[in-house]
Fold these 2 entries.
Entry 1:
Amino acid sequence: MSHPGRSRFPQHVRRSNTAWAARRGAALFCVIAAIVLLSVLAAALAVFSGSSSQSQTSQPPSVAAYYLALSGLNHAATLSANELEALIDTSGLTWDLGGGRVTLEVLGRDAGDAFAVAATGVSHPDGPRRSACRLPGSVSDAPSTISFEHDLEDFDLPVTSGDLAANIVSVDADNRVAVFGNNTQYAYGCLWYRGDRTWCESGKCLFGKGLRAFFRFAFDPVPAGLACGEGFTFAVINAAENDASRSGGMVGMSELMGYAGPGSTPDRKGLVPPKFAVEFDVYANRGVDNPNFPDSRADGSGGDHAALVFWGLDDASGLCTSGGQAYACVQDDNRHSRQGVEDVGCMATGDMPRNSQNQAGAGDYHEQGGRPDWLRSGAHAVRLEVDRGALPGILGDFTYSIRVWIDCDGCDDVMSAYAAQTPTLSRTFSLSPVQHAKLERVLFGWTQATGEAVQRVRVSDFRLYFLE
């Protein structure tokens, strides 16, 4: 469901359709120009009609000033969030319409994610019949943020491998948190945004120039005698070939984290690429590096790690099998490349990004020496920024840049770029025009999986903003 912003007297502007608002603002400016012209004519008539007539015609300039101010508020609805943000702590914008003047000021942002604005209309600004009108207002949807605070109900209906009653993935509406795992063994699931806020339709959102996201997470202690695992991802997947009913994963292969693998999809393709995710992995898989087998990892030192993952090994046959099930290998593999041994997913340039290397310090893989349980300990703040190229490069490919901060300070403001700390993870890669086009709209959410090890992860304070 959509959650419109709270109205503020006397003028509330809801930027729900920018194109319509732009036409409305332009049309209103034309009307205002006509009103100003009529006001000038009325003033001229007053000069020739004497003082008694002047008193009768003193109202038109005030009407003109009001509509001038109203046009300023309507123009605010046509501005992007970045443009409104840039006007804070400035003198604003001023338009001179000949017989009238409009000034638009952006006063700041409030707790409800609205921009507080004020528009001042001045009729006959340089004459004795000068009159002014100032109208305050708010642009409720300008920041375009999606958050647990306002939109958690739009993250309902999780996709899981088991009975929904098991709460493998669930939302806690009272505390505004999402819960993953519920200490259930051998289960996987996803939780996708399904709403219609801003540029989204049934969870399929215009990617635009990228996004900024923030959330907090914490692993709860697991029952005695059980290990904690496997972990979870925050994923962004293309909406051209996916919808909110799809999931990755496979029971018995929890290392796929519900992100890779066939899931329960009828076509056995799981979450179809292009896609990418931030992985929070708390269980070391020391098995083989072949995606045909359970424990299909060759993890390094074995501690908790975070990494950027894409999609993986596209072998000659294009099929993998496990437990009698066949599925497309290209969707199966979120393994990490081992430096000097293999580059998982490194195929044609611009077609399949290389998965992160299984090596600390590589930029797209992070672990903490001496703290093998660092992700499982305490609460963590996560900040994600993605820049999506609008124009192709010399070779025709489109550039994407991902930056992730973990345990960052003061990083919850998704309306502004974050530069206070060095990113924990970062990666720049290119996609072909075909892959880029598939990411015109995306779905976003979380995936998770458990095996013999279990977990209960609480995610809170989520907010996301799409760059326009």
Entry 2:
Amino acid sequence: MHCKQSATNKARFKSVIATSDPIKALEEFIETEQSVDFSSEWKEDHYSVKLSRKIERSDRTVSGSFALFRHGESDVWTALTGHGPDFFKRGIKWILRKGQPELSNFYVSSEDLESVLKDTEKRLSSRIFVNKAVVYSHKEEGNISWETRPYRFVFDQSKSSDRYVDKLTFEVRRNRELLFDSFVSRSGVVKFTGGDVNLFFNNLLRAYANTATEKVELFSEKARSRQTGEIKELEIQFNSNPLQDPDNNRDLIDALANLSKSSLTIYHNNPYAHISVLDLVDGSNCDVFVTSSDTISIIPGFRGSMNSLIRISDQIAREFQEGKVVEKYEQKFDSSDFVHADL
């Protein structure tokens, strides 16, 4: 997209993953929704979208427009608007969520967020200072800090206190020059609040989109093969040992039980945990195993969509513990691992 160098208004961005044309997925939803007016037009390098939604419970309407553009040849698409938070939340974020599972939200870890800022700082030969940080523990309310400090301090402090970084407001400076102000979160939302919009687009937003592309590579096409039975296992590896005690299994189960639009079946709880998760968004299923004190295995079923695997891994990160999700290549499972004598 082409950016206005003199842009001064706050711009809000919401990025999603779409392996096919996202507009088609949204149009399919709109066909069954009488409370929504929706139109789109392709313009050179983006869709121009108009959206009006009547909110029945509050008897009011939110209306506005946004651009929807693709990052290169990737499966990452970003909605951009200059409208305020009401339209952004109840218009754009609402309709993109309704596009599931064809449209997938993605979530970035604290490590991912730190890498995005590190990449931006390096590319611009700059320094990044956080003005506001929202950091959560896995069982308590978030902590908001208004202290201005280098971004590395925020992440180092969150690691030492076993918390995760949820969102940051910050400024990018080169010597005394302000390059741009921005906001970034783990939930696919980024804001431009001032400065040079081209530097923002070509550095911060690009680095953030690259993180989403990595999620596509990790979580896509992981469903168990119906032809061969091949299993593509994911592992969540933790730096600490959050599962060293059988009581910790209950913490994991409680975290998964809070996943929206899902159902759990608990096969084992002590001394190890085996949980089956059914995602009611699209009927996906997977098995979650505690395999050691620092590792969780996720075994996708015959229906194991990218959207579902992203939702499950993020739920574990937010309400149990953040870890690194990787693909485990050597599989040694057979049917007996999924058949239980006590059933």
